[in-house]
């Protein structure tokens, strides 16, 4: 079964830096070039898991995608397996992407965990132009 990628509910702003649109959660490249992206998300599970829930669907993917094209190769991705203990997880994604001027990159969370998730304050998303 395929899961749609969507940004979770945000607790406070976790984006910073020039070019960031805080309402859409996107970084728009002011010029074409290679950008170093980094995001660290503190993700809370908002309801306790029901007892007897199996190991299926414990995977959590965090992606940084260009132009919201997360299915193509032009993205950065981290996959984390949610341990059975604890309800707060920290997941980081870092890497380099090439953006044309005016293209945007944004953070997506693919939640197959089965519980509602909230991105907590203290999370961040940054982009640095490395070179053209």
Automatic annotation (TrEMBL):
Its main location: secreted. SUPFAM superfamilies: TNF-like. Keywords: Disulfide bond, Glycoprotein, Hormone, Hydroxylation, Secreted, Signal. GO terms for cellular component: extracellular space. It is found in: Secreted. Coiled coil: none annotated. Transmembrane segments: none annotated. One of its GO terms (biological process) is positive regulation of D-glucose import. InterPro entries: Adipolin/Erythroferrone-rel, C1q_dom, Tumour_necrosis_fac-like_dom. Residues 1-132 form the C1q domain. One of its GO terms (molecular function) is hormone activity. Gene3D superfamilies: 2.60.120.40. Belongs to the adipolin/erythroferrone family. PANTHER family: ADIPOLIN, ERYTHROFERRONE. This is Erythroferrone. The gene is Erfe.
